[in-house]
Protein 1
Amino acid sequence: MRDRRLSRFAFQAGGVLFALLLTTLVLVAAKAPPLAAFANLLRGAFGTWDVSANVLVSWVPLILVTSGLLVTFTVGLWNIGIEGQVILGGVFTTWALRLLQGSSLDPTLILVLAVLAGMAGGALWALLAGALKTFGGVNEIFGGLGLNFVATALNLWLIFGPWKRPGVASMSGTVPFEPRLWLPTLTPESRLAPASVVIALLAVAAVFALIQGTYFGLRLKAVGRNARAAYVLGVPTWQHLLASFALCGLFAGLAGAMQVTAVYHRLIPSISSGYGYLGLMVAMLVNFNVVLAAPVALFFAALNVGSIQLPMVLRLDSSLAGVLQGSLVLSVILAKGLMERTLGKGGGEEPAAAAAGPEGPGAAPAADPPISPNSSPEAPR
Amino acid sequence: MRVELREITKCFGSLRANDSISLDIPAASIQGVLGENGAGKSTLMKVLSGFISHDSGEILLDGKAVEIRSPVDAIRQGIGMLHQDPLDFPPFRLIDNFILGSHGGPGRRPGLGLRRKEAAAAFRELASRFDFALDPEAWVDSLTVGERQQLEILRLLWLGARVLILDEPTTGISLPQKEKLFATLKKLAAEGMTVIFVSHKLEDVEFLCDRVTVLRQGRLVGGAGRPFGTKDLVTLMFGKELPKSERRRAKPGARLLAAREVGLEGQRLSMRGLNLELRAGEVVGLAGMEGSGQSLFLGACAGLVQPVAGSFCLDVDAEGGGDEKDMTGRSHHDFRSEGVAWLPAARLEQGLVPGLSLTEHFILAEGARGLGGRGRLFIDRRRARELAESRIASFRIKGRPESPVESLSGGNQQRALLALLRSPLRIVLVEHPTRGLDIESTAYIWGKLKERCAEGTSVVFISSDLDEVLEWSDRVLVFFAGKVSPPLDAESLTVERLGRLIGGKGWEDFGPAAAAAAAAGVSAATAAEEGVHA
Amino acid sequence: MNDGILIAGLAGILFSAAPIVFAVMGETLSERAGVINLSMNGTILLSAMGGFTVSLATGSLILGFLAGAAIGALVALVVAFASIALRQSQVAVGFVLTLLCRDLSYFLGNPVMGQSGPRLPEIPIPFLSDLPLVGTLLFRHDLMTYLSFVLVFLVWVFIFKTRPGLELRGIGERPAASYVRGARVDGLRYLYTALGGALAGLAGPMYSLSVKAGWKGTISGLDGIGWIVLAITIFGGWKPFRAALGAWLFAFLQWLGLVLQPVLPGVPSQVLQVAPFPLMILTLLLVNVGDAEWVERALARLPEGSRKRIGGLLRGLRATPPAALGTPFEKD
């Protein structure tokens, strides 16, 4: 048993090393000094208080998205539509702010309502993907993908159409909101709103509590691992699938709301900035482990921020962060695969399976369970 | 081609699926292989056709020892296998199915082209030889099972098969197709083919085969040549009468469930006119070879399978005199809330969640209410553990509360499934309650089930073990090719009669239509279509 | 709008759709074998950058295209390896690769950004290019666009008219039955995934050396094309002609969006540009509507005749994917 844990660690460490190696090779190929590049990444993220604050700014939407994704991953879903859900969160928040900014309501109340609206927007968009899956059998990967593009188009249309700046529509988004409708930042120059950090921390805690501690969370786990058995044990499966979509959408919408109220104070074309996809990567890297999510997300956020000044300092493109992030996740997946191949999947020969096994009137061997891009584990009954 | 199997042994873990089987099959003959579920027929045929490799023993073809490492190897040596569900490609045309894997004809080198014209010509020639009415351009998924078999036979013939293994071929085909198949097999045998006919249907085997071999529990227990004695075959297949243990005869209580004129459609099965009335406290056994419709029926009683005709009604009035609740078309969860529970045969695949512990399963099954905190959001871990410990103790599960269920043995998984059931329940539907379990676990499981009966629960179970069926049932329903016998009193049912019924004989006792259908090995519905006469 | 502009526009559509045609043909082959290559978006970007860089460095267009194809094949092989040998999720690996390759393309392509490199020349076909209308439409293109027309036909012939093509279809449909007939399922899956990746890898250079010449990094407008390719592959029902039609339709809608912009300012151009995706969702809906449990239950309640008729109708609407798509093949 200890042997096994040691080997697991070895494989995972090997994976991380491989990722570093890969990134180093890439740097060499780009004729860039590897050590200097890595050092600059760190300095760029933690060198000054300002950039460290920016790491937190970047961390907030990322951890929110990741938390939401952990819910959908628990139930066995690939919620690729997360990007669109963040966008809709931003859209709904902007809509609420525009609606209420002229009213006499207290600014704090307006902000709260706007954030709630954003969460609702994200949840709605997620439910759309969920409904397509449960009632239409559309695989959530392709449904989500399609909805991402639709969300992006919607966003652009709003920015260049009905909500455009007076005069010339601009890529810099809608008219910024008045400062009274901003989530208060640390200093007037910084983009870090402490409230958003607190909200993000609460969100992580909430997801942890949900998945590990509630009946609902346990049912989600059951559905994710064996939807059929969960159904037989009494869990209403498709309702739980939809609920997890909605929950994830709430978190995604919250992320979008934070982007609008705390960071940009307006709606911009790249309001989701790829945080959705990055969150998927974080979730995959931590193997859906809630506790590890926050630090890993912080690491990824640090890479993002740290790479910003690479073009200026080393004449390297800032996508080095993405290269390192992608290499890490890829290496971890490959390492996991290699480990399973060499060590076996865990658990020995199952006596029950052997007994129930090969007999059956002329059972044809190797019957693959058909999974098309359109399969769903359980449909409404 | 003469086929000799010498001391073929194959083990799966501790299970001896084939134990030193030796069999000598002369060329130009039809050899029947009989046996009940789990006897080892499938394993033996898989070994012969190259799907799995045997642990020890030899295979000789025409006196020469051969190594068969894969299905392709097998067909190259001349052994072709027709699976119960033919391994074909439903979305493709017949001719494409015919061509795939053939490389343009036996012995030819694979080329780039499809050589459709040649293949079509060969196809037509072969088809006409056996009077198969198959259109090469038709799509395979529009064919009936019988026609798909014909296609596969033609394909194997084209590839030069000199041994043809057929695994339960008469399941789900119509009477004319069966007659054609038999005519084809006889013709092939006369031309020199060695035919191996694996089946549980006594009538078919008795009609078709020159010789019969019987397998039981992995061993070859006997064989016979013509003329066959049904009684002897049944005894070989199922064993002798065991002295019956002291059984408490259940006094049937109020009616719980009424299934009326139920019709069900399975993949290869069409059932009509099923009727059953379940009474409190009784045990009903569903006997028959797997795939004869028992699982379908049991699933329908649980709401997992939707009937296409008829109705299921639960009697919800406690006194039994009154209200009927029509449950037809309702979901499984509706049935569950009315006190119907279903336990699957595939314990880990359909009943338990791998990766979750025993405690977590209990939490799932009980919910917040069961743990004494109705409406609570968070799991009361302490109470959950207490509950798990007490259930583990009372069901004597060899496992700890935190053990993941996949680490439990089969017997303990079954105990866990039982422990997860709620109380009280109206009806417990169990697929194969003791499959793969040792004697001790078997006795224990049945003890627990009988406890439920004493409380008034009705138990319906499927089993391939005739002794089990006869020992524990109050009434027995026999399934054969989608046809169901009327409920038979278990006390007066003998192993011999049960075996015959399972093999398709003795159905004339139930009325002419049933007998004709059973004799044809088809469902009554198909029989009506074909205009079968008694 | 006069004829000349219309024809030129249509010719432009064929031109701009050509890379997509290549990628869709490649993905169709890969998915026919049972492997989804979700890394398509990243592959196209990386092969575009790689092809451009090589071509710029060597001055040879051919080497640029070969580099692109090699990159595409390599990325696809990673997906295949992770799926077949390591039994990991095709979706997971493909998704990571799509992001990784995209970032790699931006990072490694930084030095060549904005530089102008070789371009594919137009090769009008003698005689045919002088035909009225048709001449400009079909016969005044570059080599790769011509090849795109031929490719569709070739892939169609291969899949439906040759023995290896039949074998390919068998593997994606029912690997167990193919195995019984002697197909080396895993080996062939590697082969077709790599081949599909190579074709997709040709699409990248077709952009950076022709359709959108040069490498412009994040503003190259190439990000997102790979997802469209995947959508069109599904819409195309894994049939070459239908898929190519989808590609041309998409390019047509994009062109329409540009053309209509000044004419109908109210209609946002984004609407037309995202059209493939709702179409893809619609296709998927139609594919599966027959399978949904609630539909089955509703059908079960109908009388026998209607049930058979409606069931048949639903089955006919389907563009069924290869049944074994996405699943690893296990012999036992």
Protein 2
Amino acid sequence: MRRWVPLIALSACAFGQATADSAAGRKIFESQCALCHGQTGGGGRGPALNRPRLEKAPDDEALRKLIAQGSGDMPGAWQLHPDEVSGVAAYVRSLGALPPEPLRGDAERGSRTYAASGCPGCHMVAGQGAGFGPELTGIGARRSAAFLRQTILKPAATLAEEFQYISATPVTGSEVRGIRVNEDSFTIQLRDAGGSYHSFRKGELRSLRRLEKETPMPSYEGKIGGAALDDLVAYLAGLKGKP
Amino acid sequence: MKWFALLLCTHAWGQVPYDRIVNAAKEPGNWLTYSGNYQGHRFSPLREITSANAGSLRVKWAYQMDSRAEVSPIVADGVMYITGPNTAAALDVRTGRELWTWSRPIPKDYQNIGFGRVNRGPAILDGQIFVATLDCYLVALDAKSGLERWSSKVEDYRPGYSMTLAPLAIRDKVLVGVSGGETGIRGFVDAYDAKSGSRAWRFYTIPGPGEPGHDSWPGDSWKTGGGSTWVTGSYDAETDLVYWGIGNPGPDWNPDSRRGDNLFTCSLVALDGDTGKLKWHFQFTPNDSHDWDATHVPVLFEADVRGTRRKLVAVANRNAFYYVLDRSSGEFIAGRPYAKQTWAKGLDDRGRPIVNPGTEPSEAGTLVWPNLNGATVWFSPSYSPAEGLLYVAVRESASIYFKRKAEYKPGTFFAGGGEAQAPGGAPTGAIRALEAATGQVRWEFKMHTAPWAGVLSTAGGLVFSGSDEGNFFALDAKTGKPLWDFQTGGRIAANPISFNVDGKQCVAIAAGRVLYVFSL
């Protein structure tokens, strides 16, 4: 037992150190980074940072380098001490860290539920499936298990702000329903459930409306439940991205 | 050959004396100063392109730049002069082919704090092209060859001074202002002798001890008070008065260390062109805590005010209010909001805002309209003397403003807080036509998102502007009805201009990294 004591002390100390760094980093972040990245990393002039995987900073060393040296329009923080840079990096990482969740289900069984329930008809995982809905290859790194469970049961309740399901009716022709792929002041591009793209000039539409709280994804409430649902959530939560 | 012969007859190549710029309206085929004329109108007297034929506009040529293009070109006698960050070029206006290029290295330790590495255009006077650089030099180039005549250090870039604006060349001087309002600079407007490059005068936007306005700064707060001057001013050639907008106070979001009006931040100043002496000032946002620079192109115009013809200056301000002032005295004539705002009840009879309590940034965050980028920013408005309307690209957005401690360290952010986007969707925007004398909205063209591009109006009855999604478009100047649009493929964050090539009207806009020229 005795040899455990220093180990525990060490890990407690390391933990305490990380917390202190992150707290100091938070202060620096809020006064020097938040101008562009938002006070809680939600983004603004600069990209959002409240996500576990940062495109330009795949690992902590790259993140520290990015903070210290800058990139493109982002100035380097050459005035910061390396410890302060580490603190900011730690805080940025904490913005995207998901709390670890205990998962009840069995991911292996969940993958079979996924295939049997028709999910690959719309979603792609590791190159398999259709690309109509969001790709799920790394969904477990972005979304919590609770969020995934909710989406399976009530997909309209967890729609992202930028997601828009649109009804467009041309002056001549019939209504098209689809996910908004792109839009500007004069045109809009939709993708229908069959995967076909539709491009409209707004001036040539009889009606253009957002289908609030609607999504092409069906609810699986009453269709997948109990252990099968736990399994499916475990499978999705375990999808952490391309190896 | 005929074309060159014609040029040589009218003007020596690149020779643009002061009188030509004063009388820019007499040669609408050229675009001789940042805003097209000294009055800040960004209005083209050309009328070949009209509401009847704008639908037939097509690309004449395009020119690829090395980085994000925000340039408003100069066009003189068959040559277009453009700039990028520490770069300049002369292009054949018929084809877009380069005639010369110039560049100056950006120092390795240079950093742009609070803005992008961009440049918004050159100036021309006599045979010289003037370029303001990121590392804070004003450079004069020989218009014919692109070779350097002189370069003058405006200020040390290391504490945060920088320049992105187009210089303003008047009479025999070249005027510039500085960026750096997020780094605790002490801002100024500088004038340089056009021939020698020696500094003729400097007007500090933050008054020093003993100077009028100094008492609006407690303690040493004036030393790091900001007051940048990063947008090109306007000029009244008759009275030799320069009109220049002044930026936010520092630290941006924490006013605790600088309680007071913080003159002359967030103000318009009228300066004597010969001496730089302050004639008058008008402050839009006293003790600003939302980063609402008053760095806009002031628009000089005349209108009847209660039955009397008056010389006026108008500003559509970042703080969401539109102001009309007497331009010889600074007297407040009219003002009203032109976009959603929640920070003031209105303006009193002297134009001072009646500020709503509880709208300052706070530890927990304060929701205020507009956001830090304001209801409009640096990109130019346009004034059509034909319509009596002022056209402005409007941003509709709110922010949650946070206040934090601010510690001054040279060359670092001195912001004292920040902002987060308010919940409830992306900001929207519009092009609005305001009655110039009152600010009353005549029409609006709604846009998909908040724009970052300036406006051009023309005697052909058109208004041109661009969108974040890359649309470059023409509206009917009387009604706002869209007449033509073109997808440029790049975000538009620049001001349009108009000029002639071989007697045919063209319109130019920078989008993404490309400069486009359109004609019928």
